[in-house]
């Protein structure tokens, strides 16, 4: 605990996740197995005259020689027409009968030739090959289709999984980006202290009239005009962080936060909100105030009543120091005087004795 003299600068303020090709069947519908090679056999009558010429017709029946002597001329030898001699009765039937007309024998009807046994065998083999080829092709195509479907499904699942992983990664990246760009800028909370007692290990200073626990809160007081008091958590040490607490100025002129401080050497950063509508950011290198510097002095948004409970906070990352009131940015400045140190609270008595009540201190660790 220490009590600092007035700030000499407060009167003069300064003002971002293979295809197989099958040949087509032979074109033109050609049958490689012709069961009738050559010309088909000739039809009936293709032999013009297998039997030669017909025999000539027999001579017409002639008269038989008559050896009997006519009663009028026994020496004459004449042919007597049958039945011309009334003395001899009827002649016997003719000795020469005409043979029945010869009809050329019909050539045998051509036998309807069927395919030979060899041709039949070849046809059966061809049919087996064709049907087998169709069946094999069907099986192969279906197998390849099934394989292709399975591969496509696996690829789709892999793609879906990849998309899901990419989406999860993208969402995580978006979440990280949101955390990185949204107050309090981290999920790594390293302090959550209701400030009702000293049980959280921060070792808040007590045992004097300036710093004490009362009514489940941490009270910081200052009763000397134009001075401020400091109450550190001597068990804390942070470099890059978001530090916030709820603050209520129960009486007096102003109160605020200390950070990157050293209670032994009285070196520290201080941000104070005054009930007159102003705020100031300062850096102290000793307890005299002679070498202190005003980093920022300005007005905070109107309508804020510091006698009610408000959230005050600072985000320190490297040399960038950003001040918030009710989680709304008030100002951002750059200073590299101190890199790390303890956190704490202060009360400022400008013209009136001051008492400030603090609760719910929280710290989130930030990357550099």
Give a summary of the structure in a few sentences.
The protein is an alpha+beta fold.
Structure report:
There is one protein chain. β11 and β12 form a beta hairpin. This protein has three domains: 41 residues, no CATH class; 67 residues; 177 residues, Sandwich (Jelly Rolls). The longest helix is centred in the middle third of the chain and has 65 residues. The strands form two sheets. Strands 2, 3, 4, 6, 11, 12, 13 and 15 form an eight-stranded antiparallel beta sheet that branches. A seven-stranded antiparallel beta sheet has the order 1-5-14-7-8-9-10, with no helix packed on it. It is α+β, with helices and mostly antiparallel strands and 368 residues long.
Number of strands: 15
Structural category: alpha+beta
Radius of gyration: 67 Å
Mean pLDDT over all positions:
75
| SSE arrangement, N to C | EHEEEEEEEEEEEEEE
Query: What is the molecular shape?
Result: rod-shaped
Could you tell me the strand content as a percent range?
25-35%
Q: What is the CATH architecture descriptor of the largest domain?
A: Sandwich
The CATH class of the largest domain = Mainly Beta
- Corresponding CATH superfamily of the largest domain: Exo-inulinase, domain 1
Total tally of structural domains: 3
**Count of helix runs:** 1
Distance separating the two termini: 30 Å
As a percent range, the share of helical residues equals: 10-25%
Largest sheet: 8 strands, antiparallel
Quote the CATH topology of the largest domain: Jelly Rolls
Q: Could you list the spans in which at least 5 consecutive residues all have pLDDT below 50?
A: 7-54, 66-115
């Amino acid at each position: 605990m220490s009590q600092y003299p007035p700030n000499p600068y407060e009167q003069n303020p300064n003002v971002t996740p293979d295809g197989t090709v099958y040949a087509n069947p032979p074109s033109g519908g050609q049958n490689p197995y012709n069961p009738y090679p050559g010309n088909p056999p000739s039809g009936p009558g293709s032999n013009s005259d297998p039997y030669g010429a017909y025999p000539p017709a027999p001579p017409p029946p002639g008269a038989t020689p008559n050896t009997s002597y006519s009663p009028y001329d026994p020496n004459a030898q004449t042919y007597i027409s049958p039945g011309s001699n009334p003395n001899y009765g009827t002649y016997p039937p003719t000795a020469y009968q005409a043979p029945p007309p010869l009809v050329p024998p019909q050539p045998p009807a051509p036998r309807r030739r069927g395919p030979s046994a060899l041709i039949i065998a070849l046809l059966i083999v061809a049919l087996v090959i064709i049907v087998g080829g169709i069946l094999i092709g069907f099986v192969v195509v279906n197998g390849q289709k099934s394989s292709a479907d399975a591969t496509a499904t696996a690829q789709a699942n892999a793609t879906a999984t990849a998309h899901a992983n990419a989406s999860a990664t993208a969402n995580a990246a978006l979440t990280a980006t949101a955390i990185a760009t949204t107050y309090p800028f981290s999920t790594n909370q390293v302090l959550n202290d209701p400030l009702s007692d000293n049980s959280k290990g921060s070792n808040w200073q007590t045992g004097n009239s300036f710093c004490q626990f009362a009514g489940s809160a941490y009270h910081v007081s200052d009763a000397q005009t134009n001075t401020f008091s400091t109450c550190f958590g001597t068990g804390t040490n942070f470099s890059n962080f978001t530090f916030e607490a709820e603050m209520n100025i129960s009486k007096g002129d102003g109160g605020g936060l200390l950070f990157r401080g050293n209670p032994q050497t009285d070196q520290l950063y201080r941000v104070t909100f005054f009930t007159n509508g102003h705020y100031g950011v300062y850096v102290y290198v000793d307890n005299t105030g002679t070498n202190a510097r005003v980093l920022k002095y300005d007005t905070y948004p109107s309508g804020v009543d510091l006698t009610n409970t408000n959230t005050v906070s600072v985000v320190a990352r490297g040399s960038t120091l950003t001040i918030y009131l009710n989680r709304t940015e008030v100002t951002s400045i750059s200073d590299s005087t101190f890199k790390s140190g303890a956190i704490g609270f202060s009360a400022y008595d400008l013209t009136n004795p001051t008492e400030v009540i603090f609760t719910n201190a929280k710290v989130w660790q930030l990357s550099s």
